[in-house]
Specification:
The structure is a homodimer of 116-residue chains. Helix content of chain A is 53%, strand content 13%. By secondary structure, chain A is α+β, with helices and mostly antiparallel strands. The first copy, chain A, has one domain: Arc Repressor Mutant, subunit A (Orthogonal Bundle), CATH 1.10.10. In chain A, strands 1-3-2 form a three-stranded antiparallel β-sheet. In chain A, a hairpin with a 3-residue loop joins strand 2 and strand 3. In chain A, helix 2 packs across helix 4 and helix 3 crosses helix 4. Chain B binds a DNA duplex (30 and 30 nucleotides) through helix 2 and helix 3.
Chain lengths: 116, 116
DNA sequence: TAAAGATATATCATATAATGATATAGAAAG
DNA sequence: CTTTCTATATCATTATATGATATATCTTTA
């Protein structure tokens, strides 16, 4: 069984996040690499070591599933129902983290200002 | 093409992010631990190994600075100007990542669906 | 005042995660 | 034919996080 603290805690690492997002449509590994580059306007480039390592882990956790095998050449994956659930949770986690950041920067983090 | 260390790429890890946010006000290590627990409604707990390791790293990069030393007991840190800059950038990065996630989930990532 | 629990910092060994380098090979383009 | 792109895969190393442990002070309370 695959170890992984992030997933055990229902968190996605950034790389897992990008990969899971890409797999909202069926894609093979190399396509994921291109999709991520595309989604991030070339900001994020994921190499083969990260890509196939993470694909294997997500697959073992059944967050993604192999949907097609083109001979030996292409392996097409897609996100699973539980993968979608986790992805949604992680988007919300990321929103909460960013909101928290904005609040603290604006100095609004302390207590409730009931003003009355 | 971001590779290598998070800070070299102007990215903050989650732990660094929480710690830098906490240091928008002067705080010593143990206070940071409590602040993070507080900010996250007890969701995030950072242990001493992570805390002091990261504090040392942020300090070496001058993203935070030692502002006071209470005898040998307390070391009070605060975020620096460059730390604040990086923090702002990272909040925006996190917002962009979450927005991207929402778009893809809603199936709006490809082209513009003008509803016609 | 003794003990307990909270505060406070620090490091080691290990676990987890990411990635550059490398290997292999088919397909497309020139 | 040879270069480039597509495509998957693993190894060795680096990067990051953390549980366990150590040490010491301060605070509360029995």
């Amino acid at each position: 069984m695959p170890r992984g603290k992030a997933l055990d805690d229902n968190r996605l690492t950034d790389s897992m996040y990008y990969i899971l997002l890409s797999l909202m449509e069926p894609l093979h590994g190399y396509g994921i690499k291109q999709k991520i580059s595309d989604l991030s306007n070339g900001e994020i480039e994921i190499g083969p070591a990260s890509l196939y390592t993470i694909l294997k882990k997500l697959s073992a956790r059944e967050l993604i599933a192999l949907v097609e095998e083109d001979g030996e050449r292409r392996k097409t994956y897609q996100i699973s129902a539980s993968g979608r659930d986790l992805l949604k949770r992680d988007i919300n986690r990321r929103i909460r983290m960013a909101e928290m950041g904005k609040k603290v920067l604006l100095g609004l983090q302390g207590g409730n200002d009931d003003g009355k």
